[in-house]
Amino acid sequence: MRPLAVEGVAPDLASGSVRATNLFSGTSTEPLLRVIGLLHRGDFRLGYAYFAPGSKPSYAVYAESALPEDRRSPISSTSAFSGLNYALYLARSARSVDLLATSSQRLPLAGRTSSTVVPFGDNAFDLVMSPKAPLGGDLAARLPWILAVTGGGLSLVGGIFTERLIRRRRDAEQLALRLDQVAKENERLYAEQRDLAEGLQHALLPEVLPEVDQLEIGARYVPGVEGLEIGGDWYDVIAIDDQHTLLVVGDVSGRGLRAATVMASLRYTIRAYAAQHDSPEVIITKLSSLMKLEEGDRFATVLGILIDTENRELVIVNAGHLPPLLLDDSGGNFLTTALGVPAGILSPGPYSAVTVAMPAQGTLVAYTDGLVERRGENLDVGLNRLHDVAVEADGSLDGLLTALVSGLADDGNNDDTAILAVRWTE
Amino acid sequence: MDRVESEDRAPLAVEVQHEPNGPVLRLTGELDLSSIGVLQEALDPLLEGKPPRLVFDLGALRFMDSSGLAEVLRTATATSVELRNPSKIVRRVIELTGVSGILPIQP
After folding, report:
1. What are the residue boundaries of the structural domains of chain B, listed by start?
2. How far is A255 from chain B (nearest CA, A)?
Protein backbone atom coordinates (compact mmCIF):
# COMPACT_ATOMS: atom_id res chain seq x y z
CA MET A 1 0.00 0.00 0.00
CA ARG A 2 1.27 3.47 -0.83
CA PRO A 3 -0.26 6.94 -0.94
CA LEU A 4 -0.95 8.26 -4.46
CA ALA A 5 -1.58 11.86 -3.53
CA VAL A 6 -1.96 13.88 -0.36
CA GLU A 7 -3.88 17.14 -0.07
CA GLY A 8 -3.95 19.51 2.90
CA VAL A 9 -2.35 18.75 6.25
CA ALA A 10 -0.74 15.35 6.75
CA PRO A 11 -3.20 12.75 7.99
CA ASP A 12 -2.82 11.36 11.51
CA LEU A 13 -3.27 7.86 10.20
CA ALA A 14 0.19 6.53 9.32
CA SER A 15 0.23 4.68 6.02
CA GLY A 16 2.05 1.68 7.48
CA SER A 17 -0.12 1.39 10.60
CA VAL A 18 -2.35 -1.55 11.41
CA ARG A 19 -5.46 0.59 11.10
CA ALA A 20 -4.39 1.74 7.64
CA THR A 21 -3.57 -1.76 6.46
CA ASN A 22 -6.91 -2.97 7.77
CA LEU A 23 -8.57 -0.49 5.44
CA PHE A 24 -8.17 -2.92 2.60
CA SER A 25 -8.91 -6.07 4.55
CA GLY A 26 -12.64 -6.21 3.76
CA THR A 27 -14.06 -8.28 0.97
CA SER A 28 -16.91 -5.96 0.01
CA THR A 29 -17.50 -5.36 -3.69
CA GLU A 30 -19.89 -2.48 -3.00
CA PRO A 31 -18.74 1.15 -2.99
CA LEU A 32 -18.31 1.76 0.68
CA LEU A 33 -17.98 4.66 3.06
CA ARG A 34 -16.04 3.18 5.97
CA VAL A 35 -15.52 5.02 9.25
CA ILE A 36 -12.00 4.38 10.52
CA GLY A 37 -12.64 5.91 13.90
CA LEU A 38 -11.52 8.64 16.20
CA LEU A 39 -7.84 9.63 15.99
CA HIS A 40 -6.11 11.49 18.77
CA ARG A 41 -2.58 12.73 18.16
CA GLY A 42 -2.73 16.28 19.45
CA ASP A 43 -6.11 17.32 18.10
CA PHE A 44 -9.10 15.05 17.68
CA ARG A 45 -10.01 13.93 14.19
CA LEU A 46 -12.55 11.62 12.65
CA GLY A 47 -11.07 9.39 9.95
CA TYR A 48 -13.12 7.87 7.17
CA ALA A 49 -12.48 6.44 3.74
CA TYR A 50 -14.34 5.93 0.54
CA PHE A 51 -13.54 2.79 -1.39
CA ALA A 52 -13.54 2.17 -5.09
CA PRO A 53 -14.24 -1.54 -5.18
CA GLY A 54 -13.03 -3.84 -7.90
CA SER A 55 -10.42 -1.46 -9.23
CA LYS A 56 -6.93 -2.90 -9.79
CA PRO A 57 -4.94 -1.83 -7.93
CA SER A 58 -7.65 -1.13 -5.40
CA TYR A 59 -7.58 2.30 -3.87
CA ALA A 60 -9.38 4.43 -1.36
CA VAL A 61 -9.80 8.11 -0.73
CA TYR A 62 -9.03 8.69 2.92
CA ALA A 63 -9.97 11.87 4.77
CA GLU A 64 -9.85 13.24 8.29
CA SER A 65 -12.14 15.88 9.74
CA ALA A 66 -10.91 17.94 12.69
CA LEU A 67 -13.33 17.96 15.61
CA PRO A 68 -13.94 21.04 17.75
CA GLU A 69 -11.14 21.76 20.23
CA ASP A 70 -11.33 19.45 23.22
CA ARG A 71 -14.50 18.17 21.54
CA ARG A 72 -16.46 20.98 23.23
CA SER A 73 -18.83 22.95 21.05
CA PRO A 74 -21.46 24.88 23.01
CA ILE A 75 -24.79 25.88 21.52
CA SER A 76 -25.02 29.65 21.13
CA SER A 77 -27.22 31.23 23.80
CA THR A 78 -29.33 32.91 21.14
CA SER A 79 -30.05 29.64 19.38
CA ALA A 80 -33.51 28.12 19.59
CA PHE A 81 -31.82 25.13 21.16
CA SER A 82 -29.92 26.98 23.89
CA GLY A 83 -31.95 25.10 26.49
CA LEU A 84 -30.46 21.80 25.39
CA ASN A 85 -27.28 19.89 26.04
CA TYR A 86 -26.07 17.46 23.45
CA ALA A 87 -23.38 14.86 23.01
CA LEU A 88 -22.53 13.38 19.63
CA TYR A 89 -20.92 9.95 19.62
CA LEU A 90 -19.56 7.71 16.97
CA ALA A 91 -21.17 4.29 16.80
CA ARG A 92 -24.11 3.15 18.80
CA SER A 93 -22.36 3.22 22.13
CA ALA A 94 -22.46 6.60 23.94
CA ARG A 95 -19.03 5.70 25.36
CA SER A 96 -16.77 8.59 26.17
CA VAL A 97 -14.03 7.14 23.99
CA ASP A 98 -16.26 7.58 20.95
CA LEU A 99 -17.27 11.15 21.75
CA LEU A 100 -17.14 13.49 18.73
CA ALA A 101 -18.52 16.71 20.20
CA THR A 102 -20.58 17.96 23.11
CA SER A 103 -21.94 21.17 24.60
CA SER A 104 -21.70 19.87 28.15
CA GLN A 105 -18.87 19.86 30.72
CA ARG A 106 -20.16 16.65 32.25
CA LEU A 107 -20.79 13.37 30.57
CA PRO A 108 -22.82 11.28 30.29
CA LEU A 109 -25.68 13.73 30.07
CA ALA A 110 -27.87 13.59 33.16
CA GLY A 111 -31.61 13.68 33.54
CA ARG A 112 -34.11 13.00 30.85
CA THR A 113 -32.31 12.27 27.61
CA SER A 114 -33.44 11.39 24.13
CA SER A 115 -31.18 9.83 21.58
CA THR A 116 -31.24 9.24 17.87
CA VAL A 117 -29.03 7.12 15.69
CA VAL A 118 -28.38 8.02 12.07
CA PRO A 119 -26.39 5.71 9.81
CA PHE A 120 -23.15 7.06 8.38
CA GLY A 121 -21.22 4.79 6.05
CA ASP A 122 -20.60 1.47 7.78
CA ASN A 123 -20.99 3.17 11.15
CA ALA A 124 -23.45 5.59 12.72
CA PHE A 125 -23.70 8.78 14.72
CA ASP A 126 -25.51 8.71 18.03
CA LEU A 127 -26.85 12.08 19.18
CA VAL A 128 -27.92 12.26 22.83
CA MET A 129 -29.74 15.36 24.01
CA SER A 130 -31.09 16.51 27.34
CA PRO A 131 -32.77 19.72 28.52
CA LYS A 132 -30.57 21.90 30.78
CA ALA A 133 -33.50 22.74 33.04
CA PRO A 134 -36.74 20.83 33.58
CA LEU A 135 -38.90 21.49 30.55
CA GLY A 136 -42.06 21.55 32.67
CA GLY A 137 -45.34 22.26 31.02
CA ASP A 138 -44.02 23.25 27.64
CA LEU A 139 -42.29 19.95 26.98
CA ALA A 140 -44.91 19.03 24.42
CA ALA A 141 -44.44 22.35 22.66
CA ARG A 142 -40.69 21.89 22.47
CA LEU A 143 -40.62 18.26 21.48
CA PRO A 144 -41.04 18.92 17.75
CA TRP A 145 -38.04 21.23 17.91
CA ILE A 146 -35.99 18.64 19.68
CA LEU A 147 -36.88 16.06 17.07
CA ALA A 148 -36.29 18.46 14.21
CA VAL A 149 -32.83 19.39 15.42
CA THR A 150 -32.04 15.80 16.19
CA GLY A 151 -32.94 14.57 12.75
CA GLY A 152 -31.93 17.60 10.76
CA GLY A 153 -28.77 18.27 12.71
CA LEU A 154 -27.61 14.73 12.43
CA SER A 155 -28.16 14.43 8.74
CA LEU A 156 -26.27 17.69 8.42
CA VAL A 157 -23.36 16.18 10.29
CA GLY A 158 -23.43 13.19 7.97
CA GLY A 159 -23.73 15.54 5.05
CA ILE A 160 -20.81 17.74 6.02
CA PHE A 161 -18.48 14.79 6.45
CA THR A 162 -19.58 13.32 3.16
CA GLU A 163 -19.28 16.63 1.35
CA ARG A 164 -15.73 17.08 2.60
CA LEU A 165 -14.92 13.61 1.43
CA ILE A 166 -16.28 14.33 -2.02
CA ARG A 167 -14.26 17.52 -2.18
CA ARG A 168 -11.12 15.68 -1.15
CA ARG A 169 -11.81 13.10 -3.78
CA ARG A 170 -12.13 15.83 -6.40
CA ASP A 171 -8.83 17.33 -5.34
CA ALA A 172 -7.07 13.99 -5.29
CA GLU A 173 -8.60 13.23 -8.62
CA GLN A 174 -7.21 16.39 -10.17
CA LEU A 175 -3.76 15.35 -9.10
CA ALA A 176 -4.42 11.88 -10.31
CA LEU A 177 -5.43 13.21 -13.71
CA ARG A 178 -1.79 13.95 -14.31
CA LEU A 179 -1.01 10.32 -13.78
CA ASP A 180 -2.05 8.57 -16.94
CA GLN A 181 -2.61 5.21 -15.37
CA VAL A 182 -5.27 6.52 -12.97
CA ALA A 183 -7.19 8.65 -15.44
CA LYS A 184 -9.25 5.69 -16.49
CA GLU A 185 -10.59 5.37 -12.97
CA ASN A 186 -12.12 8.78 -13.22
CA GLU A 187 -15.30 7.89 -14.96
CA ARG A 188 -15.98 5.05 -12.61
CA LEU A 189 -15.53 7.40 -9.67
CA TYR A 190 -18.33 9.62 -10.89
CA ALA A 191 -20.63 6.63 -10.86
CA GLU A 192 -19.48 5.89 -7.34
CA GLN A 193 -20.02 9.43 -6.18
CA ARG A 194 -23.52 8.99 -7.49
CA ASP A 195 -23.85 5.78 -5.48
CA LEU A 196 -22.69 7.70 -2.43
CA ALA A 197 -25.34 10.36 -3.00
CA GLU A 198 -27.91 7.63 -3.45
CA GLY A 199 -26.71 5.90 -0.32
CA LEU A 200 -27.10 9.05 1.74
CA GLN A 201 -30.52 9.64 0.24
CA HIS A 202 -31.61 6.14 1.11
CA ALA A 203 -30.33 6.66 4.64
CA LEU A 204 -32.65 9.65 4.89
CA LEU A 205 -35.71 7.78 3.61
CA PRO A 206 -37.63 5.19 5.63
CA GLU A 207 -35.76 1.91 5.62
CA VAL A 208 -38.86 -0.18 6.11
CA LEU A 209 -42.44 0.99 5.73
CA PRO A 210 -44.57 0.30 8.79
CA GLU A 211 -47.00 -2.62 8.72
CA VAL A 212 -50.48 -1.14 8.95
CA ASP A 213 -53.56 -3.27 9.50
CA GLN A 214 -55.88 -3.30 6.45
CA LEU A 215 -53.39 -1.41 4.28
CA GLU A 216 -50.86 -2.47 1.68
CA ILE A 217 -48.28 0.25 1.16
CA GLY A 218 -45.37 0.39 -1.29
CA ALA A 219 -42.80 3.01 -2.24
CA ARG A 220 -40.02 3.61 -4.75
CA TYR A 221 -37.25 6.15 -4.99
CA VAL A 222 -35.46 6.64 -8.32
CA PRO A 223 -32.52 9.05 -8.56
CA GLY A 224 -32.28 11.21 -11.68
CA VAL A 225 -29.57 10.56 -14.24
CA GLU A 226 -27.75 13.66 -13.09
CA GLY A 227 -27.71 12.09 -9.66
CA LEU A 228 -24.25 13.30 -8.67
CA GLU A 229 -26.04 15.35 -6.08
CA ILE A 230 -28.73 14.33 -3.65
CA GLY A 231 -32.25 15.51 -4.32
CA GLY A 232 -34.88 16.78 -1.92
CA ASP A 233 -37.65 14.31 -2.75
CA TRP A 234 -39.06 12.22 0.06
CA TYR A 235 -41.90 10.03 1.20
CA ASP A 236 -42.97 8.86 4.62
CA VAL A 237 -45.56 6.62 6.22
CA ILE A 238 -46.52 7.42 9.81
CA ALA A 239 -48.79 5.08 11.76
CA ILE A 240 -50.50 7.47 14.18
CA ASP A 241 -52.98 5.17 15.96
CA ASP A 242 -55.12 2.11 15.22
CA GLN A 243 -57.38 4.11 12.97
CA HIS A 244 -55.11 6.69 11.33
CA THR A 245 -52.04 6.53 9.11
CA LEU A 246 -50.43 9.58 7.55
CA LEU A 247 -48.79 9.33 4.13
CA VAL A 248 -46.48 12.12 3.05
CA VAL A 249 -44.85 12.82 -0.29
CA GLY A 250 -42.81 15.97 -0.74
CA ASP A 251 -40.15 17.73 -2.75
CA VAL A 252 -37.76 20.39 -1.43
CA SER A 253 -36.64 22.89 -4.06
CA GLY A 254 -33.06 22.64 -5.26
CA ARG A 255 -30.54 19.86 -4.92
CA GLY A 256 -27.49 18.94 -2.92
CA LEU A 257 -26.85 18.37 0.74
CA ARG A 258 -28.72 21.50 1.77
CA ALA A 259 -31.90 20.32 0.07
CA ALA A 260 -31.46 16.84 1.56
CA THR A 261 -30.93 18.31 5.01
CA VAL A 262 -34.06 20.44 4.76
CA MET A 263 -35.89 17.35 3.55
CA ALA A 264 -34.74 15.30 6.53
CA SER A 265 -35.69 18.01 8.98
CA LEU A 266 -39.16 18.39 7.39
CA ARG A 267 -39.65 14.66 7.59
CA TYR A 268 -38.85 14.54 11.30
CA THR A 269 -40.87 17.67 12.01
CA ILE A 270 -43.96 16.23 10.32
CA ARG A 271 -43.49 13.05 12.37
CA ALA A 272 -43.33 15.07 15.57
CA TYR A 273 -46.46 17.07 14.77
CA ALA A 274 -48.27 13.90 13.72
CA ALA A 275 -47.28 12.26 17.00
CA GLN A 276 -49.08 14.97 18.92
CA HIS A 277 -52.19 14.26 16.81
CA ASP A 278 -52.26 17.48 14.81
CA SER A 279 -54.59 17.30 11.81
CA PRO A 280 -52.93 17.26 8.35
CA GLU A 281 -53.94 20.85 7.59
CA VAL A 282 -52.50 22.01 10.92
CA ILE A 283 -49.30 20.03 10.28
CA ILE A 284 -48.76 21.61 6.85
CA THR A 285 -49.61 25.11 8.12
CA LYS A 286 -47.13 24.79 11.01
CA LEU A 287 -44.53 23.30 8.71
CA SER A 288 -44.89 26.20 6.31
CA SER A 289 -44.44 28.83 9.02
CA LEU A 290 -41.46 26.95 10.42
CA MET A 291 -39.82 26.72 6.99
CA LYS A 292 -40.39 30.38 6.26
CA LEU A 293 -38.57 31.14 9.45
CA GLU A 294 -35.77 28.61 9.22
CA GLU A 295 -35.02 28.06 5.58
CA GLY A 296 -35.35 31.48 3.98
CA ASP A 297 -35.21 30.70 0.31
CA ARG A 298 -36.22 27.04 0.33
CA PHE A 299 -39.66 25.77 -0.52
CA ALA A 300 -41.28 22.41 -0.44
CA THR A 301 -44.30 20.99 -2.15
CA VAL A 302 -45.97 18.60 0.29
CA LEU A 303 -48.89 16.25 -0.05
CA GLY A 304 -50.31 14.92 3.21
CA ILE A 305 -52.85 12.10 3.08
CA LEU A 306 -54.42 10.92 6.31
CA ILE A 307 -55.97 7.48 5.88
CA ASP A 308 -58.90 6.71 8.18
CA THR A 309 -59.13 2.92 8.09
CA GLU A 310 -62.40 2.79 10.06
CA ASN A 311 -64.36 5.15 7.82
CA ARG A 312 -62.32 4.19 4.74
CA GLU A 313 -61.65 7.83 3.95
CA LEU A 314 -58.71 9.92 2.82
CA VAL A 315 -58.18 13.41 4.22
CA ILE A 316 -55.92 15.21 1.76
CA VAL A 317 -53.97 18.44 2.21
CA ASN A 318 -51.95 19.83 -0.69
CA ALA A 319 -49.18 22.44 -0.51
CA GLY A 320 -48.37 23.05 -4.18
CA HIS A 321 -47.92 19.37 -4.98
CA LEU A 322 -49.13 17.47 -8.04
CA PRO A 323 -52.51 15.75 -7.48
CA PRO A 324 -52.60 12.11 -6.36
CA LEU A 325 -54.02 9.52 -8.75
CA LEU A 326 -56.86 7.27 -7.57
CA LEU A 327 -57.24 4.05 -9.55
CA ASP A 328 -60.30 1.84 -9.32
CA ASP A 329 -62.29 -0.63 -11.42
CA SER A 330 -63.52 2.10 -13.74
CA GLY A 331 -60.08 3.59 -14.51
CA GLY A 332 -58.14 6.40 -12.88
CA ASN A 333 -58.77 9.95 -11.73
CA PHE A 334 -56.51 12.67 -10.44
CA LEU A 335 -58.11 13.80 -7.20
CA THR A 336 -59.15 17.40 -6.88
CA THR A 337 -57.50 18.87 -3.81
CA ALA A 338 -57.74 22.25 -2.11
CA LEU A 339 -54.51 23.46 -3.67
CA GLY A 340 -52.44 25.69 -1.39
CA VAL A 341 -49.05 27.26 -2.15
CA PRO A 342 -45.82 25.34 -1.50
CA ALA A 343 -44.72 25.29 2.15
CA GLY A 344 -42.23 27.95 3.18
CA ILE A 345 -43.54 30.59 0.83
CA LEU A 346 -44.33 34.25 1.45
CA SER A 347 -47.50 34.38 3.55
CA PRO A 348 -49.00 30.93 3.42
CA GLY A 349 -52.76 30.96 3.40
CA PRO A 350 -54.46 28.53 5.72
CA TYR A 351 -54.36 25.08 4.19
CA SER A 352 -57.59 23.19 3.98
CA ALA A 353 -58.36 19.50 3.65
CA VAL A 354 -60.66 17.61 1.35
CA THR A 355 -62.12 14.25 2.35
CA VAL A 356 -62.43 11.54 -0.27
CA ALA A 357 -63.92 8.07 0.11
CA MET A 358 -61.36 5.39 -0.71
CA PRO A 359 -63.20 2.66 -2.68
CA ALA A 360 -62.72 -1.00 -1.76
CA GLN A 361 -60.84 -1.77 -4.99
CA GLY A 362 -59.08 1.59 -5.06
CA THR A 363 -55.35 2.26 -5.26
CA LEU A 364 -53.93 5.68 -4.46
CA VAL A 365 -50.68 6.84 -6.08
CA ALA A 366 -48.80 9.90 -4.83
CA TYR A 367 -45.55 10.94 -6.54
CA THR A 368 -43.09 13.78 -7.08
CA ASP A 369 -42.81 15.77 -10.28
CA GLY A 370 -39.87 13.77 -11.64
CA LEU A 371 -42.37 11.10 -12.62
CA VAL A 372 -44.31 13.35 -15.01
CA GLU A 373 -42.22 16.44 -15.78
CA ARG A 374 -40.29 16.38 -19.08
CA ARG A 375 -38.39 19.08 -20.94
CA GLY A 376 -40.44 21.11 -23.36
CA GLU A 377 -43.64 19.30 -22.55
CA ASN A 378 -46.91 20.41 -21.04
CA LEU A 379 -47.39 18.88 -17.58
CA ASP A 380 -50.79 17.56 -18.66
CA VAL A 381 -49.10 15.34 -21.23
CA GLY A 382 -46.99 13.82 -18.44
CA LEU A 383 -50.01 13.42 -16.18
CA ASN A 384 -51.89 11.62 -18.97
CA ARG A 385 -48.89 9.35 -19.52
CA LEU A 386 -48.86 8.47 -15.82
CA HIS A 387 -52.61 7.80 -15.94
CA ASP A 388 -52.27 5.48 -18.94
CA VAL A 389 -49.35 3.49 -17.57
CA ALA A 390 -51.06 3.13 -14.16
CA VAL A 391 -54.38 2.00 -15.63
CA GLU A 392 -52.65 -0.56 -17.86
CA ALA A 393 -50.62 -1.99 -15.00
CA ASP A 394 -53.26 -4.06 -13.27
CA GLY A 395 -52.22 -6.62 -10.69
CA SER A 396 -50.17 -6.35 -7.56
CA LEU A 397 -49.12 -3.12 -5.91
CA ASP A 398 -45.53 -4.10 -6.49
CA GLY A 399 -46.30 -4.68 -10.18
CA LEU A 400 -47.87 -1.23 -10.41
CA LEU A 401 -44.83 0.45 -8.84
CA THR A 402 -42.46 -1.48 -11.08
CA ALA A 403 -44.49 -0.49 -14.15
CA LEU A 404 -44.42 3.17 -13.12
CA VAL A 405 -40.67 3.11 -12.56
CA SER A 406 -39.81 1.28 -15.78
CA GLY A 407 -42.40 3.12 -17.86
CA LEU A 408 -41.92 6.64 -16.55
CA ALA A 409 -39.04 7.18 -14.17
CA ASP A 410 -36.30 5.22 -15.93
CA ASP A 411 -36.27 7.04 -19.26
CA GLY A 412 -33.24 9.26 -18.88
CA ASN A 413 -35.12 11.58 -16.61
CA ASN A 414 -33.04 14.33 -14.98
CA ASP A 415 -35.02 14.71 -11.81
CA ASP A 416 -35.40 12.44 -8.81
CA THR A 417 -38.67 10.62 -8.36
CA ALA A 418 -40.44 9.36 -5.26
CA ILE A 419 -43.59 7.25 -5.55
CA LEU A 420 -45.88 6.05 -2.77
CA ALA A 421 -48.88 3.77 -3.42
CA VAL A 422 -51.50 2.36 -1.08
CA ARG A 423 -54.55 0.08 -1.27
CA TRP A 424 -56.78 -1.95 1.06
CA THR A 425 -55.68 -5.48 1.80
CA GLU A 426 -59.29 -6.72 1.77
CA MET B 1 -14.88 13.39 -18.02
CA ASP B 2 -15.33 17.10 -18.50
CA ARG B 3 -18.10 18.73 -16.55
CA VAL B 4 -19.36 21.23 -19.09
CA GLU B 5 -22.45 19.34 -20.10
CA SER B 6 -24.74 21.46 -17.95
CA GLU B 7 -23.59 24.50 -19.91
CA ASP B 8 -24.02 22.71 -23.22
CA ARG B 9 -27.54 21.94 -22.28
CA ALA B 10 -28.52 25.33 -20.93
CA PRO B 11 -30.53 26.81 -23.75
CA LEU B 12 -31.57 29.77 -21.65
CA ALA B 13 -30.93 33.43 -22.43
CA VAL B 14 -31.69 36.22 -19.99
CA GLU B 15 -32.03 39.78 -21.22
CA VAL B 16 -32.44 42.59 -18.70
CA GLN B 17 -34.29 45.83 -19.41
CA HIS B 18 -34.58 48.58 -16.85
CA GLU B 19 -37.98 50.14 -16.42
CA PRO B 20 -38.61 53.06 -14.03
CA ASN B 21 -40.01 50.88 -11.23
CA GLY B 22 -37.67 47.94 -11.58
CA PRO B 23 -35.90 45.53 -13.91
CA VAL B 24 -37.64 43.32 -16.48
CA LEU B 25 -36.01 39.95 -17.16
CA ARG B 26 -36.89 38.53 -20.51
CA LEU B 27 -36.27 34.78 -20.51
CA THR B 28 -35.78 32.92 -23.78
CA GLY B 29 -35.50 29.15 -24.13
CA GLU B 30 -35.89 26.58 -21.37
CA LEU B 31 -35.60 27.11 -17.63
CA ASP B 32 -34.85 23.95 -15.69
CA LEU B 33 -32.33 22.38 -13.35
CA SER B 34 -29.55 22.51 -15.93
CA SER B 35 -30.04 26.17 -16.83
CA ILE B 36 -31.01 27.58 -13.45
CA GLY B 37 -27.48 28.94 -12.88
CA VAL B 38 -27.82 31.25 -15.88
CA LEU B 39 -30.87 32.88 -14.28
CA GLN B 40 -29.23 33.07 -10.85
CA GLU B 41 -26.22 34.88 -12.28
CA ALA B 42 -28.46 37.50 -13.82
CA LEU B 43 -30.71 37.79 -10.77
CA ASP B 44 -28.24 38.10 -7.91
CA PRO B 45 -26.72 41.48 -8.87
CA LEU B 46 -30.18 42.85 -9.65
CA LEU B 47 -31.53 41.84 -6.24
CA GLU B 48 -28.57 43.46 -4.51
CA GLY B 49 -29.92 46.78 -5.80
CA LYS B 50 -33.14 46.08 -3.87
CA PRO B 51 -35.57 46.97 -6.65
CA PRO B 52 -39.16 47.66 -5.52
CA ARG B 53 -40.43 45.34 -8.25
CA LEU B 54 -39.08 42.74 -10.65
CA VAL B 55 -40.82 41.46 -13.77
CA PHE B 56 -40.24 38.08 -15.40
CA ASP B 57 -41.28 38.30 -19.03
CA LEU B 58 -41.94 34.65 -19.89
CA GLY B 59 -43.28 35.22 -23.42
CA ALA B 60 -40.32 33.50 -25.10
CA LEU B 61 -39.82 30.82 -22.44
CA ARG B 62 -40.72 27.48 -23.95
CA PHE B 63 -40.45 25.44 -20.77
CA MET B 64 -40.06 25.84 -17.05
CA ASP B 65 -39.84 23.07 -14.45
CA SER B 66 -40.35 23.17 -10.70
CA SER B 67 -36.76 24.17 -9.97
CA GLY B 68 -37.25 27.15 -12.29
CA LEU B 69 -40.40 28.05 -10.45
CA ALA B 70 -38.57 27.74 -7.13
CA GLU B 71 -36.09 30.36 -8.35
CA VAL B 72 -38.96 32.70 -9.24
CA LEU B 73 -40.38 32.14 -5.75
CA ARG B 74 -37.00 32.78 -4.16
CA THR B 75 -36.98 36.12 -5.96
CA ALA B 76 -40.46 36.84 -4.65
CA THR B 77 -39.15 36.68 -1.08
CA ALA B 78 -36.81 39.58 -1.88
CA THR B 79 -39.00 41.84 -3.96
CA SER B 80 -42.44 42.16 -5.48
CA VAL B 81 -42.55 39.84 -8.50
CA GLU B 82 -44.78 40.04 -11.53
CA LEU B 83 -45.05 37.42 -14.30
CA ARG B 84 -45.78 38.38 -17.90
CA ASN B 85 -46.99 36.42 -20.92
CA PRO B 86 -46.46 32.83 -19.75
CA SER B 87 -47.03 30.26 -22.49
CA LYS B 88 -49.53 27.47 -21.95
CA ILE B 89 -46.84 25.04 -20.79
CA VAL B 90 -45.33 27.49 -18.34
CA ARG B 91 -48.73 28.67 -17.12
CA ARG B 92 -49.71 25.09 -16.30
CA VAL B 93 -46.72 24.67 -13.97
CA ILE B 94 -47.64 27.90 -12.22
CA GLU B 95 -51.24 26.77 -11.83
CA LEU B 96 -50.51 23.23 -10.68
CA THR B 97 -48.34 24.45 -7.81
CA GLY B 98 -50.90 26.97 -6.56
CA VAL B 99 -48.49 29.82 -7.27
CA SER B 100 -50.94 31.53 -9.65
CA GLY B 101 -52.88 32.52 -6.53
CA ILE B 102 -50.08 34.55 -5.03
CA LEU B 103 -48.09 36.11 -7.90
CA PRO B 104 -49.71 38.56 -10.32
CA ILE B 105 -49.72 37.31 -13.93
CA GLN B 106 -50.17 39.65 -16.91
CA PRO B 107 -52.11 39.09 -19.02
Report:
1. 5-106
2. 9
